[in-house]
Amino acid sequence: MLTFTIRRLVLAVPTLLFISLVIFLLLELAPGDPMAQVPLTVPPDVKEKMREALGLGQPMHIRFWKWIVQFFWIEPQVLIDSMFGTTFSQGDLRVISWQTRSPVMDIVVQRIPQTLWVVGTAYVVAILIALPIGIYSAYRQYSWFDQAGTFVSMVGFSVPPFFSGVLVIVIFSVQLGWFPSIYDTTHRVDDWDSFVYQLRQMIMPVMVLALQITAQLSRFMRASMLDNLNQDYVRTARAKGLSEYTVVMVHVLRNSMIPVVTVIALGIPAIFGGAIITEQVFKVNGIGQLLIGAIQANDLPMVQTLTFIFAVLIVLFNLIADVLYGILDPRIRYD
Fold first, then answer.
1. Is 306 exposed, middle or buried (0-12, 13-18, 19+ CB in 10 A)?
2. All domains of the chain, ordered by start, with CATH?
3. DSSP code for 91
4. What is the DSSP string of 199-255?
């Protein structure tokens, strides 16, 4: 397993370099000009100097190489400096946002806690709800519980977040007045009352997101459990006199989790990507909203960096899913 992990990590390096090149070329070919937002009263020679200051006057391969050096070499040094108080990155030019003229990673670090508070919590809640529902629905197939779970899942799949988000705002915020309708991103948790308020403003966006994620994961869990409940090893385990709990929760569940692990692992990068629609509805100032704003402003360094971070997370969690396969199923070996 260790050899397989090292081999995959080494293979991930050229994979990520190729992905970064593809992202860079796609953004270069995309229509739009970062200087389009500049007022018409600005003289052309000043606009040209502004383009040069942004690095747009350099050849494409030079700009790509500079971004690679900044992302893979300078930004890790900045992280080390912030953790240990060193000065490795002092004087080096970082990846700068064209829109804000601030380092891109500093803005991302500011936005990630808001996204993790909402989207991360919704994902954890959805997993804790979806797995038991999927397991029991499969074990009691076609029961009233299974029928109710199927109905709720179809609703979760069918209702888009921009509708369910507005609906819960009208019901729980406007009509009942239980929760705030707008997420306060400036709120700081420093005592019990502020923590309670943080939970209150998280409930509605978490509810909307968890409904969608639960609908997906519970269906995957149910289908995987049904595939394994009729296998020969289940009949053999029951014939040996094992308790029903041991058969279902130990043998069947362990094998059923293998495909579900893929869905869960590949869904984790989406947490860091944010929930764009939900963040717009509840005014959560997270990563998803940051990406939309950068696209609208033609802020290529921001878009390129965020997109590449998502690609790194996908490659990483693919590897984690493969490692978990070997842990869940001893028959899987990476020799």
1. buried
2. 104-328 (1.10.3720.10)
3. T
4. HHHHHHHHHHHHHHHHHHHHHHHHHHHHHHHTSHHHHHHHHTT--HHHIIIIIIHHH
Cβ atoms of 276 and 160 within 8 Å: the answer is no
Cβ contact 288:272 at 8 Å: no
Structure tokens at 165: 């988000």
Name the pTM for this structure: 0.74
* Nearest-angstrom CA–CA distance, 242 and 236: 9
Q: Tell me the mean pLDDT in the region 112-136.
A: 84
Rounded (5°) CA angle 201-122-197: 20
Residue 103: φ, ψ to 5°: -60, 135
Q: For 297, what's the count of Cα atoms within 13 Å in the CB-facing half-sphere?
A: 16
C-beta atoms surrounding 62 within 10 Å: 11
Rg (CA), the chain: 24
Q: Is 34 helix (H, G, I), strand (E, B) or coil?
A: coil
* One-letter amino acid of 262: T
Q: What are phi and psi of 180, to 5 degrees?
A: -70, 145
- Say which residue the tokens 């020799």 belong to: 335
Classify burial at 313, counting beta carbons within 10 Å of its beta carbon; exposed 0-12, middle 13-18, buried 19 or more.
middle
Three-state DSSP state, 103: strand
Condensed to tens digits (0 to 9), the pLDDT of residues 78-101 reads 788 777 777 777 767 777 777 777
Cα separation values, 89 from 18, 77, 94, Å: 26, 5, 9
**CA nearest to 127, candidates 247, 209, 250:** 209
Q: What is the pLDDT of residues 18-44, one digit of tens each?
A: 888 888 888 777 666 666 555 566 666
